Amino acid sequence: MPPDEMRITDLGTLKAFAHPLRLTLYRALHVARTATASQLAGQVGEAVSLVSYHLRKLAEHGLIEEAAPQSGDGRERWWRPAAEGLTVRYEDLKGAPELVAAQGALTRILLEQRAALYRRHLDESATWSDDWRSAGFDAEYLPRLTAPELADLQRELDALIRKYQALGRSAEAAGDTRGRENVAIHLYGFPFRTREDRQP
């Protein structure tokens, strides 16, 4: 089983990951848990050769790895994420401006892709049951916090979400897949200033 978390701390890996198609492939592979290039190509609408190339690039940087074959076809190469989750933390990068810039580029692409995923959900919301439409949420909170309090909040939210991920994995391992769907949870916690605050 892959480790829980991989921290990206080097420029080469950041740049390799900050590619729209590679991010899309990584997300699709994370959802599937294991897949071949041809399976992923069908999901993302790209040629198998192009998908294979980008999967190899992700593997070169240790972001994904080969998985045990899931079928009898020995020609198929199966892949899986190298870790349950990836993190890029400012404290690992702050001494190097080029790393901070690469993190910014990665974060902007992720933001665009997450917004597109949510827009797609909104466009397709009528196809979901009343239970799913009621369970989904979109919320904004505007507390006044210190930096340490915001960091504590992030750790608590991470622990809570990981608890539910573990529940889902345990249930699926036991064969209980009834009613389970892929769920995207996007959280952002960042400071901002009002116009009044910004004035000298």
Automatic annotation (TrEMBL):
In Pfam terms, one family for this protein is HTH_20
Q: Which InterPro entries match?
A: ArsR-like_HTH (IPR011991), HTH_ArsR_DNA-bd_dom (IPR001845), HTH_MetalResp_TranReg (IPR051081), WH-like_DNA-bd_sf (IPR036388), WH_DNA-bd_sf (IPR036390)
HTH arsR-type domain ranges (all copies): 12-95
Q: Could you tell me the keywords of this UniProt record? A: DNA-binding, Transcription, Transcription regulation
Name it. Answer: Transcriptional regulator
The entry lists its GO molecular-function terms as: DNA binding; DNA-binding transcription factor activity
Determine if Transcription regulation is one of this entry's keywords: yes
